[in-house]
């Protein structure tokens, strides 16, 4: 059985015991995380939400908080002596999916 969840403005296809990296959510290492925005539950008889599957949730465990790779945004206008360099590192969370509770 698998599910499609929505978190951080993105959609993820998850199954039990999967480890996913998502955008930062509140919590500490070892705590329980619940995703209530389930868009679809797949398996023998798939359930599709419109837009969400009612009564479904995905339970996971917060593994660790990390940061993504540094992304450099560099803009230059030639012959104008104009440059702008900005770096960014996204805060990320690693989550281990424990179970999918479907309605």
TrEMBL record:
GO terms for molecular function: rRNA binding; structural constituent of ribosome. One of its GO terms (cellular component) is ribonucleoprotein complex. It holds the Pfam family Ribosomal_L21p. The keyword Ribonucleoprotein applies. The keyword rRNA-binding applies. This protein binds to 23S rRNA in the presence of protein L20. Part of the 50S ribosomal subunit. Contacts protein L20. This is Large ribosomal subunit protein bL21. The lineage of its organism: Bacteria, Pseudomonadati, Pseudomonadota, Alphaproteobacteria, Hyphomicrobiales.
């Amino acid at each position: 059985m698998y599910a499609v969840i929505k978190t951080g403005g993105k959609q993820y296809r998850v199954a039990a015991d999967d480890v996913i990296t998502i955008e930062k959510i509140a919590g500490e290492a070892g705590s329980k995380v619940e995703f209530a925005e389930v868009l679809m539950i797949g398996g023998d008889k798939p359930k599709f939400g419109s837009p969400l599957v009612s009564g479904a949730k995905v339970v996971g465990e917060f593994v660790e908080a990390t940061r993504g790779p540094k992304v450099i945004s560099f803009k230059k206008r030639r012959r104008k002596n104009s440059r702008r360099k900005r770096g960014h590192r996204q805060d990320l969370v690693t989550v281990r999916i424990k179970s999918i509770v479907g309605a």
